[in-house]
Amino acid sequence: MVDQSTGSHSPIGPQSLALLGGAGQRLKQWLVEDAYPTWWQRGADRMYGGFHERLHQSGEPSDEPRRARLHPRQMYAFSLADDLGHDGLTELATRHSLDYFLRHYLRDDHFIRNCVAPDGAVVDDSVLLYDQAFALLGYASAFDVFNDESLRDRAHQLLDNICRHLRNDTGGFRESPDRDGLLTSNSHMHLFEAALAWMAFDHDQRWRLLAEQLVQLALTRLLDPATAQIREFFTAEWVPAAGEMGRIVEPGHQFEWAWLLLRWHAFSRDSRAASTALALVDAAENRGVDPRRGVAVNALLDDGRIRDGRARLWPQAERLKAACLAWDTTRLPIYCDMAHRAAVSLERYLQTMTPGLWRDTMTLDGGWVDEPAPASSLYHVVAAIAELDGIINRVTPPAIGYVGRINKPNRRIY
Length: 414
Hints:
Layout: H1 14-41, E1 54-55, E2 66-67, H2 70-79, H3 81-84, H4 90-104, E3 115-116, E4 122-124, H5 129-146, H6 149-165, E5 183-184, H7 185-199, H8 205-222, E6 223-224, E7 229-230, E8 233-234, E9 248-249, H9 251-268, H10 271-288, E10 289-290, E11 295-296, E12 299-301, E13 306-308, E14 311-312, H11 313-330, H12 333-349, E15 361-362, E16 373-374, H13 378-394, H14 397-400
Helix pairs in contact: 1-12, 1-13, 2-4, 2-5, 2-13, 4-5, 5-6, 5-7, 7-8, 7-9, 9-10, 9-11, 10-11, 11-12, 11-13
């Protein structure tokens, strides 16, 4: 465990900053010159609207159903395009995604359905908390771009639905209104993310109250104090699920929770949230990163044994986000070095035959699964690059020769 007691004034060497700045430059150049153009030119569906679920490594779209999470994630990713250097794309791409989402995913009861076909035909009309959370995040991203009050109204209505129909008696929310079953920390994490996003634009106290409730849930029910980890699956009473399901820990989600708790700390000055976040980062880095391949693996058990040693793209992005914000919070050199390692690991996934795509899954031997690139992963990658870009810009840019854009102040709550 890292000693954080003196971290706020610890020096960071110019060599570490230079290395991280170089990685940030490369990632941002890839995003602006390759990823944004590819996902707008090839990933956007010009026939039916919206975005394709995945692109083959050749760049050709896959003809498959589109999950509800896809379009809110694209709204988020493209809402940052102009800020990060691809001028003129934000409004076009965000509107393209928003219009398709509003046409095809809204049920009559104002919940969000799970999945539709490319032409908008309903494939799965079920309601999942996870999808509602991403709808709220998408509305916040689109509101930031268009300042359209109807999006705030939609978010309020959806939040009311969640609180009225999904509230769980022992805290948090059920995963679906029409069936009981295991609860997941993941869906609550993304609801927390959505609440933080709306707090930047909307003074309605329900967002802060929701965030506070979810922080308390994480600190008192989801977190295992013995291992400083958050498990994935729980009963309705927030007891870890029976058997192996209740022992699963995903390093990517540890990093993601840490990033969100550090954002909350920056707003609330909640010291327990900060210390918990740093403990999550340390535990995930020490137990969940394979030193041989240098990547965060998919899943562990609570005792540290590897459950799934493959390594998807998205945990690498979450590792980078968490390391950046841990460094920004503490100024401990260990987190600057961690951020650089995470950035270099992420770059490996971006070396593809079609510029702007990525490999989604690294195998145990360091090879790659031959599969299309999921469009929804752009959300993870953009968030990581934006976090790195913003933090480097805040740390004496001339000293490391970094030239970048500072994100809009209202992108973050800190």
